[in-house]
């Protein structure tokens, strides 16, 4: 996997970090989660920007969103008590399938 793909995957994981920090920030009333949100968001966007210089935009964005959506949903289910249902798991597997498909068909 090339550097652009590694950066893209890290940026997708950072999307999960900033989404979790956003929830923890309490509408930006808590300092440290708010700062984590801003830092993770900036790093995630910078990484996505780098990746789209080397990977087609639609592919990079689709994979980035897929990683972020999957990570955020799993975080919500594991740490925040979001419902874990067969339907949700199947939908998450469809997201993974789509992201992998975009990578393979790149």
UniProtKB/TrEMBL annotation:
SUPFAM superfamilies: Multidrug resistance efflux transporter EmrE. It is a multi-pass membrane protein. The chain crosses the membrane at residues 35-53, 60-80, 86-105. Keywords: Cell membrane, Membrane, Transmembrane, Transmembrane helix, Transport. It is found in: Cell membrane. Its main location: membrane. Belongs to the drug/metabolite transporter (DMT) superfamily. Small multidrug resistance (SMR) (TC 2.A.7.1) family. This is SMR family transporter. It comes from Streptomyces marispadix.
